Amino acid sequence: MTVLKASLRNFLAHKGRMALSAVAVVLSVAFVCGTLVFTDTMTTTFDKLFASTSADVTVSPKKPKDDKAQQETGRPPSVPESALAGARTAEGAKSVEGMVSSEKVTVVDGDDKNIGSTTGAPTIASNWTTGDRTTMKITSGHAPRGASDVMVDADTAKKRKLKLGDELRTITATGDIEARISGIATFQVTNPGAAIVYFDTRTAQRELLGATDAYTGVAVTAGSGVTHAELKKNVTEALGAGTYTYQTKKEAADSSREQIGSFLDVLKYALLGFAGIALLVGIFLIVNTFSMLVAQRTREIGLMRAIGSSRRQVNRSVMIEALLLGVAGSVVGVGAGVGLAIGLMELMGALGMNLSTSELTLAWTTPVAGLVLGILVTLLAAYLPARRAGRVSPMAALRDAGTPADGKAGTVRGVLGLLLTAGGGAGLYAATQAEKASDGSVWLAAGVVLTLVGFVVVGPLLAGGLVRVLSVVTLRPFGRVGRLAERNALRNPRRTGATAAALMIGLALVASLSVVGSSMVASATEELDRSVGADFIVQSNNGQPVTAAAEKRARKSERLKTVTTYKMVGARVTAPDGSTAAEHLAATEPAYMDALRRETTSGDLAAAYGKDSMSVGAEYANKHGVEVGDTLEVAFSGGREAELKVAAITSDDTNVDKGAKYIHVDTARRYLPADQFPLSWMVLATADEGHEKAAYAALKKQMKPYPQYQVRDQADYKETLQEQVGQMLNMVYGLLALAIIVAVLGVVNTLALSVVERTREIGLMRAIGLSRRQLRRMIRLESVVIALFGALLGLGLGMCWGAAAQKLLALEGLGVLEIPWQTIGAVFVGSALVGLVAALAPAFRAGRMNVLNAIATE
C-alpha cells in the first residue's frame, strides 16, 4: 500500500511531464478503436442492407468455375423465364417474382454528367419489384409504368439536384435508354452510397439483358409455416439440382457479406498497421519519458533505498506509474476512438458513402482491445527504465541527479546494433539478387526489420559522429549558442538516439514508399514510350467495357488514321502437351500491331492475324513446348471449338500485354454467337500525321455523351499514372502522419524534461550573461539538430529499402529506379521545421525561469 501511495503521489507530482506520453497512448489507442468501430459499423450497415434486400429463397444463374472462360458482353448472367414458371410449382412457395438487375450501366443527366457515386459504389439499374417495397418507399411521383419512365433513389436525386420530369439517359451494353424521372424512392435502410434507377420489368429485360424472356434472378417468398431451408429444398427439386444456384435469405446475405468482407478486411488491417507503427513510435516516447524521470529522481530513489526500500519495491513503483499512465491514456483513447469513427463516417458521407451514426457499432471487444493494448504497450515500454531504477544504489543519495554514462553497456549495444544492421544489409542485398519476387520478398522483409532494429540500437553510437557533422552546417554559424546546443545534443547520446529513432521510423517509411512510387511511374512511363504507338487511348477508369454505341462514335471521329479495339475472349486452351486451362485471348485487328508494338522471338505477328491463326507468349511456349506451326485446341466459351495454328511467339520482355495470346477479331466472331461476342476493353486510335491536336479535340467531343470513358493522349496517360500513384502515396503519408505526430511529441517531451533536468545549469548560464533570447535559440537549435539526425537516418534507411524493393519490382517488368530527390530534400528541410516547432513550448518555458530560483534548484 505504501508503494502504491508513493507511486500515485509521484504520478500526480509529474503529471505535466507524463502528459505528452499520455497523448501518444491516446492517439494510438484511438486509432485502433476508431478503426474497429468504423469497420464494424460498415459491416453492420451492409449486413442490414443485405438481410433486408434478400428474398426468402433466391434462384440465380450458376456460378462459372473459372471467370477467365467468360465473355464480357456487358450483360449480366441470366436465367430463362422457365425458371420463374418452375419455381411457382414448388411446394410452399407463396409468391414468385422475376428480378432484373445490372451494375454494368452508367446513368447521365441532361448535361451528359454521370450521376453515379464518386466513391466507387456501383450504379445499379433494375426493375421495380414487390421486394423493393420493403426497403424503398416512393416519396414523390410514381413507379415506372413504361419505357419512358425511370425512378431514381432520393439520395442520388438530392446529391445531383434531380427532380420529377428531368431526363436521364442510362447507357447499357445493348443501347441507351432515354426516360424521364417519374418517381423518387427513399431508402428505408441505410444506403452505403449506390445510385439506383428503376424501370418497369419489360424495359429492364429488353435493355439490360437484350431479351424479354430472361431474368437475372428469381425471388421466391415462403408460405406460412414453411422454413427457408424447406422452401430451398422444394425449389431445388422443382427446377433441378445443379441447374441454378439456390440460396436462402441467410445464405444470400452471407454471400454478399463475403464479397464486401474482403475489402473491409483489407481496409481494417491496413489502418491497424498504421496504428501499430504509431504504437511503435509511442514506445520510444514512453521509454524516454521514464528514463529521464528515473534519471532526475536518482537521489530520491537512492534515499528510498537508503531508508529500506527494496529493489523490487522501487521497480514496482515505476511500473505502477506506468500502469496509471496506460490506464488513463487508454480510457481517453477508447472514447477518442469512437469520436474518430464518427468523424470518418461523416467524411465518407461527404464523399458520397452514407453511413448513419444510428448504426454505430461498438462491440465489447473494441474497448477491451484498446485498453489491453494501451496498458500492455505502456508497461512494456516502462520495463527497462523500471529495472534501471531498481538498480540505483543507496549511495546515489549522495550524488547529483542525472543519467549515468552508458559505460560497458553502451559498447555492447553499439556492437549489437552494428551486427543487426549488417545482417539486415545482407538481407536487402539478397533480395536484390533474387530470381523470383516471392523469394526476394522474404529477404526484403527480413532486411527491413533487421536494419530498422539495428539502426534503433546503434543510434546512440551514430549520434556522436552525425550530430557533429550536422552541427557544422546548422549550428556552428550561430556561434557560442550553436556550440552549446551541439554539446547538449551530444551530452546523452542514448537519449538523442532514442528521440531521433521515433522520427526515423516514420520518415524511413515515407522515403521508401516515395522511391517505390517514383520508380513505378518512371518504369510505366518508359514502357509507354517504348511500346505504345497509338496517339489516343479510350477506356474507363472503373473497368467498364466500351459499349458498341460508344465504339461506333469513336470510329466516326475525324482526323483519325486508324482505330482499333482490344477485346478479351474467354476460352479453354489445350496445348500440345495435353494441358488445358481457361485463358483470355486478345481479339484485335492488324492495326493493333502499330498501336502496340510487340517483338517476337519466333514467327511473324502479322501471320497470327490470318484465318484460324494465333500467337502465344514466350513463357507459355517454353512451359508447354509450343513452337511456331503447332496447333492449339481452343474451346470458345459459349461458342464452338476451333483448332488454331501458332503463327508467332511474342517476347514477354514487356509489362504491356505480357503473355497475351492474339487472334484476329474475325476469328472470335466466326466461333462465337452474336449474343456472346465480347465488348471492347479499350479503343486505340492514331491521328493523321500533323493533325494530332485537331484529332484529339474531335475525339473528346465525339465521346462527350459517354462520360464513363476517358480520352487520353500519351501525355494524359502519363499524368494519370502520376496522379494515381500520387493519390495512393498521399493517403499513406496521411496515415503515417499519425506516427510522425507521435514522434514530434517525443521531441517536445525530451526537450521539456531536459529543461527540467538542466534547471540549475540554465540558471547559472543566465546568471553569467546568457540572454533569454539566446537561451531559447539554444534549445530550438538542439531540437533542430536532433530532428535532422532522425531525418538523416530515416531517409537514408528508407531509400535503401525502396531501392531493394524496386529490384523486386524489376522482376515484374518495372525496371527503372528513380530517387525522388526533390521529395527527399523537402522532407529533410521539413524535418528541421518540425524540430523548430517542437522546441517552441520548452524554449518558452526555459526563457521564463527565475534565475535565482533555478540556481537554487537541486
TrEMBL record:
Cellular compartment(s): Cell membrane
InterPro entries listed in its UniProt record: ABC3_permease_C, MacB_PCD, Macrolide_Exporter_MacB
Topology of this chain in the membrane: Multi-pass membrane protein
Transmembrane feature ranges: 269-295, 318-342, 362-384, 414-431, 443-475, 496-516, 731-756, 781-804, 824-844
Region of interest called Disordered, as start-end residue ranges on this chain: 57-98
Occurrences of domain MacB-like periplasmic core (ranges): 19-237, 496-699
Keyword terms: Cell membrane, Membrane, Transmembrane, Transmembrane helix
Domain spans labelled ABC3 transporter permease C-terminal: 274-394, 735-850
Domain of life: Bacteria
Principal location: membrane
Family per record: Belongs to the ABC-4 integral membrane protein family.
UniProt protein name: Membrane protein
Origin species: Streptomyces daqingensis
